[in-house]
Amino acid sequence: MKLYFPGNTVSFPWEKVLQLRVLLIEDSADDAALLLRELGHGGLQVEHVRVETEDEMRAALDQRAWDLVISDYSLPHFDALGALDVMKRSKRDLPFIIVSGTVGEDTAVAAMRSGAHDYVMKANLKRLPETVRREVREAQLRRERISLEAQMRHAQKMEAVGMLATGVAHDFNNLLTVILSFSQFVHDDLPAGHPARLDLREVVECAGRAAGLTRQLLTFSRRSVFDPQLVDVNSVVTAAEKMLKRLVGKHIDYASVPCAEETGTIADRGLLEQVLVNLVVNARDAMPDGGKLTVETQVLDREGVSYVQLAVTDTGVGMPPDVQQRIFEPFFTTKPAGRGTGLGLSTVLGIVKQCGGDLAVHSSPGKGTTFKVYLQRSHAPAPLLASAAMKRVRGSETVLVVEDQAGVRAAVQRTLNSTGFRVIEASRGREALELMGKKHEPVHLVLTDLNLPEMTGTELVQRLRQDEPSLKALYMSGFAGGALSHQGVVDSTMSFLQKPFTPDVLVHKVRAALDT
Fold first, then answer.
1. Cα torsion for 269, 245, 353, 263, to the nearest 10°?
2. What integer pLDDT is reported at residue 382 of this predicted model?
3. Closest to 240 (Cα-Cα) out of 212, 203, 199, 220
4. What CATH number has the domain spanning 398-515?
5. CA separation for the pair 251, 411 (Å, rounded)
6. In terms of pLDDT, which residue wins out, 337 or 190?
7. CB 276 within 8 Å of CB 310
8. What is the mean pLDDT of the chain?
9. Quick one: pLDDT at residue 323?
10. Residue 135: which region, alpha, beta or left (left: phi > 0; alpha: psi -120 to 50)?
11. What is the mean pLDDT of residues 181-196?
């Protein structure tokens, strides 16, 4: 247990308090000296201020922090009950001990009912040190309990926010899947050079940015799906450079310095891109009058382990230590109203931890800031599905699609039919079971949403595999929820398709799930 004093930290068991700050309400200097001597004999080192009036007490409370108040019951111009009232209105939870030579027991009990914590008769001052220890200890326990209760309320609030974000993101990702898919259908049907193609490309880009926002919500609420794959950090930095330059503006000198070594790591590429964007936006906002922003990668070795370091450095306003201690708190921001949500850096920290990495910040007021992301280096083989830019694949297998959203179901059916697959549709689990019981042809793959009415996607697949043990499955969802592992990481035996997706990504995922 610790007590904190400005410029001095004292650690002690409660039977051996070393230093206390006491506000002493006493009109007699001699009586005050007796009190302080008795406290010293009891092993307490006391720093005190003596006051005699209400105005002096108010001024003393405002000037510094106190550990307790000791008050005579009756003074010429003030009394203990008035002092109690002053302390109550100041909203300070300080032990209040009455010391008097004339007050009767009934009066003292009435004072305790008014808020005093104990009383000690001046004829029995030897009891004072132990009374002080007890009341200071209990005050500390009260503050700790209040702090824990506040933390619990905050945790409950954040859980509610997370659940709300999850529901909104899930529905929004379904809508974005439909927007992306049908925009692609129209784009592909238009002849080359048609002016509407450029309009549709803008729609797709905006939908992609909207998907990034929902992903940020899910990451913040710890409900995002982490789809690990081999990612070249240099390629992430290089691919984003053009977009980041537009993002920071011409008043900032943007430079990227990728290292010459291989920078492979196992991570979710989309989430890693989000880390980079969030850090760059944070650096941009720290340089309203311009400056230099540098994105740099390095390979470092620490205790026999190789790491990829991604560093974002700005020459902006910097941060004092008290701000640095809070920058990763959700909703904490130093930006003006309307300029920031306070989720950017908390999201970055969540993603980095999800990737198994570490994050460090170095900053000084007026000297800029550097954020350093450390990710374990990897040379694992590249995944089968590197990007949606691979050549269009086709198939002839039968796919059972189980999705409760009609728009998503229509987009999936049209995409798969156009590439040669045969599709059987169901809107919920029981309907899918009935269709499988009546089928007259083999079904090669079930493509199911994880969050269905009546039963989850995983429960549906388990029931289907009771009759078809070799049935392959591809799961899709706008969020992980409780259907995946508690960490939100896709199980290594599961094929997973994150919503929103484009037609190309859908076909490649289906083909990969069938061929695995």
1. 60
2. 41
3. 212
4. 3.40.50.2300
5. 43
6. 190
7. yes
8. 82
9. 79
10. alpha
11. 89
Does residue 272 or residue 347 have the better pLDDT? 272
How many other C-beta atoms are found inside a 10 Å radius of the C-beta of residue 106? 8
Give the pLDDT score at 489: 42
Helix (H, G, I), strand (E, B) or coil at 23: strand
Q: Given pLDDT bands bounded at 50, 70 and 90, which one contains residue 355?
A: confident
Query: Is the distance from CB of 184 to CB of 503 less than 8 angstroms?
Result: yes
CATH 3.30.565.10 at 232-376, yes or no: yes
Q: Which residues contact 240 (CB under 8 A, 6 or more apart)?
A: 273, 276, 277
3-state secondary structure 188-199: HHCCCCCCHHHH
User: Cα separation of 179 and 242, whole Å?
Assistant: 25
Exposed e or buried b per residue across 384-409, where buried means at least 16 C-beta atoms within 10 angstroms of its C-beta: eeeeeeeeeeebebbbbbbbbbeebb
| Percentage above 70 pLDDT, the chain | 83
What is the CATH architecture assignment of 2-144?
A: 3-Layer(aba) Sandwich (3.40)
Q: Do 119 and 70 contact (CB within 8 A), yes or no?
A: no
Phi-psi region of 91 (alpha: psi -120 to 50; beta: other; left: phi over 0): left
pLDDT (tens digit per residue) in 141-181: 888 888 788 778 776 776 676 677 667 777 888 889 999 89
Q: Both tokens of residue 458? A: 């995983």
Residues of the chain with CATH 3.40.50.2300: 2-144, 398-515
Q: How confident is the model at residue 225 (pLDDT cuts 50, 70, 90)?
A: low
Residue 389 near residue 370 (C-beta atoms within 8 A)? no
Q: Which two tokens stand for residue 352?
A: 């980095």
For residue 157, what are its two tokens?
């609030």
Write a three-state SS string for 239-290.
Answer: HHHHHHHHHHCCCEEEEEECCCCCCEEEECHHHHHHHHHHHHHHHHHCCCCC
Residues facing residue 252 across a β-bridge? 291
Between strands 291-302 and 358-363, the pairing is unpaired
| DSSP at 362 | E
Length of the chain: 516
HEC sequence for 51-69: ECCHHHHHHHHHHCCCCEE
| Window from 63-72, 208-217, 309-318, 332-341 with minimum mean pLDDT | 332-341
How remote is the C-alpha of 93 from its chain's centroid? 31
- The SS3 of residue 470 is coil
DSSP letters for 371-405: EEEEEEB--PPPPS---TTSPPP----EEEEE-S-
Tokens standing for residue 498: 């994150």
Q: How far apart are CA 178 and CA 478, in angstroms?
A: 12
Q: Where in the chain is the domain with CATH 3.30.565.10?
A: 232-376
Contacts within 8 Å (CB) and 24+ apart, 331-335: 335/285
